[in-house]
Amino acid sequence: MTDTHRAPADEPRLDPATMELDEAKTRELEEKFDSEIRFRPLAPLAGRLVGGLLILLSLFHYYTAGFGLLPEMEHRGIHLSFVLGLCFLVFPFTKRGYDQPAGGSLLRPLGIAWFDWLLAAGAVAAVLHVPLIPLDDLAFRVGNPTTTDVILGGILIVVLLEATRRSVGWPLPIIALVFMAYAIWGPQMPGLLTHPGATFPQLVDHLYLTTQGIYGIALGVVATYVFHFVLFGVFATRIGLGQLFLDCAAWVAGRYAGGPAKVSVFGSALFGMISGSSVANTVTVGSLTIPAMIRLGYKRHFAAAVESTASTGGQITPPIMGAAAFLMIEFLNLPYTTIIIAAIVPAFMHFFGVLVQVHFEAKRNGLRGLRPDEMPDVKAALRRDWPTVIPLVALIGILIAGYTPYMAAFWGITLCIAVGLLNPRKRMTIWEVLDGLRDGAKYALAVGAAAATVGIVVGVVTLTGVGFKISFIVTSTAAEMAGYVGAILPGGLFDAKSLTLLFTLIMTGVVCILMGCGIPTTANYIIMATIAAPALGILGVAPIVAHFFVFYYGVLADITPPVALAAYAAAGMAGADPFKTGNTAFRLGLGKALVPFVFVFSPSLLLVVPGFTWPDFLIAFLGCIIGITCLGAALSGWLLTRTQAWERLVLAVAAILLVAPEIYSSLIGLALIVPVLIRQMSARKLTPHAA
């Protein structure tokens, strides 16, 4: 049953035309609200120089994806030299630089301070030094760095931290500095954290001359996979695939209670298939859904929170996922198709968790769905935009056929350009193609700098072995907590091993969320995968399950204050309070916070783990659905009708018990729901329009 109705004369009507994407507007919004692609004002010549370098970076990756990657160090070095050099040209030293005039002067050639030119040149020289060393000579110098190596390595560390500070903020560079200090002052560390320590030349040698540090896996994944898929997402959106997805989402979900909010969730899920960026997803879909939600009656901060929370799911939605998914390929040595299959159910659960709370909120506030005259013509949309699906279908097909992800991205990009140039309904010019190449490279700057900085953290972990020490501390603490709790619980309800794992998961999830308060999602995942995932491995959790756990919780970084890039972007578009939006988005995200616990205790939920069975999957899937619904009802205050305080408490407890490791706890959780349902059904009879 739909929730449309005949509107009173004074009720606002939503024009279907307002659900059409304005590409220029969305790009403007993204540059305004996403600090990672917001560039300082540039003089015309500097703008052409930066634009040309960005296009050249995209062409380098496009060519190597289709015709063969360069040797590892060379490929990563060229990528990082572009990234760091451009960072100093486009990101100012302080935020005041964004307000300075674009004109140049003697101390600011082409509008860029002289020391930024110097830092850019120093970064390029320091980065390219290592790839230019002959491989045999480099192998000899690892462990025996020359004075030049130490000096240039020290310069690279300094400029890398500064580039990262400018592009993503202070928290990540501070974390890297703390880890470097730990590496040097190891003998002074307490207890299990003590280690022999490293001299500064030894530390630079490990971080600079090996693939265990700055030139490590994180940078390699960004330079080899992430860049190409981001570029594909840019072109897929430009040729009209994003608009087709939004039209389909409106047709599927718009007619139901709180229509635009549900369009936001479905549209973000579909758009997430071609965009792994939370902010890009937020401003593109949100430019249409946020105003519609506000006009329909949603509070501004809630409308912004809905869009930002749904949009974070783009990072875990196959086939185009965020950088962390590509990192799993290297960490786990698995094909990308395996990662895609494993991500299907977690991605579904993410959007289901948001949808549940959106539905309950709409019912609690009596918000209507879209009327037929407010809905887009989906048949016309399919006739108009069906060619835009070709690149996505081809990309998925090439991945399934077993080719490398970057080869799939190469053909996806090629087909996007072909469709754009040949489609008479929405034809791209060659200048628009170049514009897409430039915009695609913009996303590489901040994530590239962050990935290289995370390489410092990973390098210190491999140099000192601190990851295993932290894992031991975490599991030992969890075992102690399990002993205390097990002593007071009824006998046989939980065994010691399950409780230890449960507390380890809780601590890991909390740390993921706290880390997300200060650093981007990708950096959060890499650090937690390096430090926390081994703790889960000690307790027998399969590697892919452990990595998906920290990956899933890391996604919350984009809606976790005080960073919350996606939430703050949506708040700016809605004219809402940013902090209030962030808190509401975090609450909406908690509706699916149970999911990682489910697939740890029931790995069949990931579909590709050893020992998968359909009965195990169905039990876990249904338990997860019920648990998410209960938690969503507890958080929103509505189930079949408005919930009372005791019902919210019971539903929250039931949700937790449903994901606990023992069948007895799940049965208790189901039993707790029964009196709530009885009371809700009774109350619903008294208010027949409540549900």
UniProtKB/TrEMBL annotation:
Keywords: Cell inner membrane, Cell membrane, Membrane, Transmembrane, Transmembrane helix, Transport. It is found in: Cell inner membrane. Residues 1-14 have a biased composition (Basic and acidic residues). It is a multi-pass membrane protein. Residues 1-21 are annotated as: Disordered. Residues 156-608 form the TRAP C4-dicarboxylate transport system permease DctM subunit domain. Pfam families: DctM. The chain crosses the membrane at residues 45-65, 77-94, 106-130, 142-161, 168-185, 213-236, 336-360, 389-422, 443-468, 499-519, 526-553, 559-576, 588-612, 618-640, 649-678. Signal peptide: none annotated. Part of the tripartite ATP-independent periplasmic (TRAP) transport system. This is TRAP transporter 4TM/12TM fusion protein. It comes from Azospirillum rugosum.
